[in-house]
């Protein structure tokens, strides 16, 4: 009988206890995998932000508009390569519960500033040439079963037309995707001019501007020039990098990173206490057997390695099962949440970190029991009743 057979046999000496421990560890790593994938998707906007892209919003709040005339003024600023505008539409399809993330944009320049949007042959030009075109992200199209050529009314929870209607009629003439999995295709865009011409209020106003600087190293200087141009006006601005803007936006929704860290930390501390205590108890139960092993010539170092390996095996059994289940669950959730949280996936980085945690958990729960086993005295142990 080799050492692995002894380790495996000792681990499953009390099957129910071991199975419950495996389930506990499995649960912790299942939580870790799912929350890790959620956190990755949550921060995708920050991670995928272009280095040379800047966002200009109203200094009061990003929900406050600014004049569309600002767009041409910004284009003339030194260091600005190109600029576009967008406005939040607050759209929904038929009923308010059918939310559609949608924006009125300066179409030509928007596609230049966001080259990562990929269109099938001919559809990009169709979007640019069709005044009432709605270009829909593939995730949104799949969610509502929309196809190219379909006519749909899109209602707004914010805006109204001059005749009192809150619905704009669109023809879907393009369905786009992102050039990377993590880039969302969960929204729709349409021509600002078509939207603006029939507005009942706030005409010739835009939500924000997006700029490309000539070089990312010029971002700070360009931001200062933009904000200086509109200083002391009715609509002062605040310009920041796309990454900084996305981080600030997410921060307003709460410190998700801290919340996830606390949840995962609490789960692992609990598992550490449970498994560590149980391993010490298991070694105590086997004190006489360990003494017998020593009389048979097992060296203290070998006994130390066997007990530590037992803890490591337990950690990896539960951890790998939990990680595998989290992979399956994340796949399911990614399909269900694609419309508002694209790019949800169990990355190699998350899996690698999880394996590192398995090693740490095995060491943390196995070292003390292994030391205890190593120092068992044969005379005292064999002398016990």
TrEMBL record:
Give its localization. Answer: Cell membrane
Membrane topology recorded in Swiss-Prot or TrEMBL: Multi-pass membrane protein
Ranges annotated as spanning the membrane? 20-39, 256-283, 303-330, 350-371
Q: Does Transmembrane show up as a keyword for this record? A: yes
Domain named ABC3 transporter permease C-terminal is located at 263-376
Alphabetically list the UniProt keywords.
Answer: Cell membrane, Membrane, Transmembrane, Transmembrane helix
Q: Which GO terms describe its cellular component?
A: plasma membrane
Query: What InterPro entries does the database record attribute to this sequence?
Result: ABC-4/HrtB_transporter, ABC3_permease_C
Which Pfam families does this UniProt record tie to the protein? FtsX
- In Swiss-Prot or TrEMBL terms, this protein is called ABC-type antimicrobial peptide transport system, permease component
């Amino acid at each position: 009988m080799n050492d692995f057979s002894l380790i495996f046999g000792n681990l499953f000496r009390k099957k129910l206890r071991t199975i419950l421990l495996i389930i506990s560890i499995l649960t912790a790593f299942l939580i870790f995998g799912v929350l890790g994938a959620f956190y990755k998707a949550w921060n995708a906007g920050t991670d995928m932000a272009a280095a040379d892209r800047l966002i200009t919003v109203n200094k009061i709040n990003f929900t406050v508009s600014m004049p569309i005339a600002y767009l041409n003024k910004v284009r003339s600023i030194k260091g600005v390569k190109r600029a576009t505008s967008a406005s939040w539409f607050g759209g929904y399809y038929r009923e308010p519960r059918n939310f559609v993330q949608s924006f009125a944009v300066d179409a030509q320049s928007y596609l230049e500033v966001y080259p990562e949007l990929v269109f099938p042959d001919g559809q990009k030009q169709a979007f640019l040439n069709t005044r009432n075109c709605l270009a829909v992200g593939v995730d949104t199209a799949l969610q509502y079963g929309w196809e190219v050529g379909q006519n749909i009314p899109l209602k707004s929870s914010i805006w109204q037309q001059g005749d009192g209607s809150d619905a704009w009629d669109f023809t879907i003439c393009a369905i786009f995707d992102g050039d990377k999995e993590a880039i969302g295709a969960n929204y729709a865009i349409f021509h600002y001019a078509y939207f603006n011409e029939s507005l009942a209020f706030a005409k010739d106003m835009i939500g924000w501007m997006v700029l490309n600087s000539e070089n990312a190293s010029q971002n700070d200087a360009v931001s200062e020039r933009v904000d200086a141009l509109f200083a002391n006006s009715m609509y002062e601005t605040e310009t920041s990098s796309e990454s900084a803007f996305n981080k600030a936006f997410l921060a307003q929704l709460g410190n998700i990173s801290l919340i996830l860290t606390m949840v995962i930390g609490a789960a692992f501390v609990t598992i550490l206490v449970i498994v560590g205590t149980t391993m010490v108890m298991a070694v105590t139960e086997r004190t006489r057997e360990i003494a017998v092993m020593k009389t048979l010539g097992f060296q203290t170092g070998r006994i130390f390695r066997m007990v530590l390996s037992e803890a490591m095996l337990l950690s990896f059994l539960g951890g790998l099962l939990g990680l595998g289940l989290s992979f399956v669950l994340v796949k399911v959730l990614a399909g269900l949440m694609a419309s508002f949280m694209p790019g949800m996936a169990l990355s190699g980085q998350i899996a690698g970190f999880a394996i590192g945690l398995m090693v740490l958990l095995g060491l943390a729960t196995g070292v003390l029991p292994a030391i205890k086993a190593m120092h068992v005295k044969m005379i005292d142990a064999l002398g016990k009743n």
